[in-house]
Write a structure and sequence with these properties.
single chain, alpha/beta, 7-stranded parallel β-sheet, 15 strands, 21% strand, disordered N terminus
Length: 401
């Protein structure tokens, strides 16, 4: 993944901690840490009579605090930082939704990531040492240690196997002995906890568009290629093929090396939406929602953060996917009330925050609905948003009475 890291030369960091104080604190950055620190970095700081972990919200030359500043103890280079543009979005949310900065910044990171307690699940793997003379070793063991020879023959075919699987064919002591002889090599690798249950999904291809879909896609591509991107209200009746317009628009985004976020109003809709996008884009798709286990959520978030996927699908929380080069944000069924977070602060509307993230990251935002919210419709007819309409169903299917 291409980093947006810029070498820091500023001596002071503004740090926020996970206490509801609604304020940031200035800390001196030791010389040795300046090349490691950026906006969004996690740091360890002395706070009162203890130490705490916080996030850097800004880097400055001079503090308004006139006494001697304390120094940052440590910069966590092994922990994820929050992308700079997401920090800006969090600060806007704190101001607009009248909540503390701490509450806004916390919602940018899943609890599984923020706590630091959830880690990748690791799996021990056994590999055949290709540099060793395996054929000679098998010949030597055929009579003295036929079981070891059988294990080596198995590994000649498989090349690599999980330790727990190989232990069904050989004792731990035997495997250890073959490692000691340099014939087998042990490693550890991440075992992904996938939220995608079930069998393989058959890949599909872009569909031929109707005349209306072609016009809508043309508007989307025009926005993608503009210097200042548009917010598009895609008002299409049920069955008019809005999703196909989304997918072909995303294909253009991927050609530019950018990423896309697709929001759906309910978690129950996420699996079927994810399946459609995985059929088209394969392993480039990740999913984020609150019904994932902590381990699944951590792994999916990490794939986005590390740049191994380019598309995030999910409910409200997917809006904060830690992409660094977002090219498109889609809010499907944008009128739905379930986009409103009302249980805890910040109490936000994901549709409106999606529009703001699009503005801050200069990404095309598509708001899709058959019955758009009155605010969105008002913005479209007044020229603040681009209006795009799909009035007919695909294949001229009849509308219900």
């Amino acid at each position: 993944m291409v980093s947006d890291f810029i070498m820091n030369t500023k001596p002071i960091a503004k740090v926020i901690v996970s206490l509801s104080l609604d304020r940031v604190f200035d800390y001196r950055i030791p010389e040795g840490y300046r090349h490691l620190i950026e906006i969004g970095s996690q740091v360890e700081i002395p706070f009162n009579h203890t130490v705490m972990t916080g996030f850097v919200l800004d880097l400055i030359d001079k503090s308004s605090y006139h006494k001697e500043l304390k120094e940052i103890n440590k910069v966590f280079t092994d922990k994820p930082s929050i992308p700079h543009k997401l920090i800006e979005l969090g600060e806007w949310m704190a101001s607009y939704y009248c909540c503390s900065k701490e509450q806004a910044i916390q919602c940018l990171l899943p609890a599984a990531v923020r706590s630091g307690k959830t880690k990748h699940k690791m799996r021990k793997m056994i590999h055949l040492n290709e540099d060793a003379d395996i054929a000679a070793a098998i010949q030597a063991k055929e009579t003295k240690s036929p079981k070891q020879a059988a294990v080596l023959k198995r590994m000649q075919i498989l090349k690599t196997e999980a330790l727990y699987s190989l232990k069904n064919h050989a004792s731990y002591a035997m495997i250890k002995n073959l490692e000691g002889e340099g014939l087998l090599v042990r490693t550890e690798e991440i075992e992904e906890r996938s939220p995608f249950k079930g069998g393989n999904i058959l890949p599909d291809q872009p569909l031929e568009l109707t005349d209306e879909q072609a016009v809508s896609l043309k508007q989307v591509i025009a926005s993608i290629n503009k210097e200042k991107k548009d917010i598009i209200l895609l008002m299409g009746v049920t069955g008019s093929g809005k999703t196909e317009v989304y997918m072909q628009g995303i294909a253009e985004i991927l050609k530019k090396g950018q990423e896309a976020i697709i929001l759906v109003p309910e978690i129950a809709l996420t699996p079927q939406t994810t399946e459609r996008f995985r059929a088209r884009f394969g392993d480039k798709v990740s999913v984020l929602h609150s019904h994932l286990s902590d381990g699944e959520r951590y792994d999916e978030w990490s794939k986005i953060y590390n740049g191994t996927v380019k598309i995030a699908v999910g409910a409200r929380s997917a809006l904060f996917a830690p992409f660094k080069n977002v090219g498109m944000i889609i809010v499907d069924e944008e009128h739905e009330n379930s986009y409103k977070q009302s249980e805890m602060s910040p109490r936000y509307n994901a549709r409106d925050v999606a529009v703001m993230r699009g503005l801050k990251e200069n990404a095309t935002v598509i708001l899709g609905s058959a019955t758009p919210a009155i605010e969105s419709y008002h913005n479209a007819i007044n020229g603040k948003y681009v209006m795009s309409t799909l009035n007919k169903r695909v294949d001229d299917q009849k509308m219900p009475h």
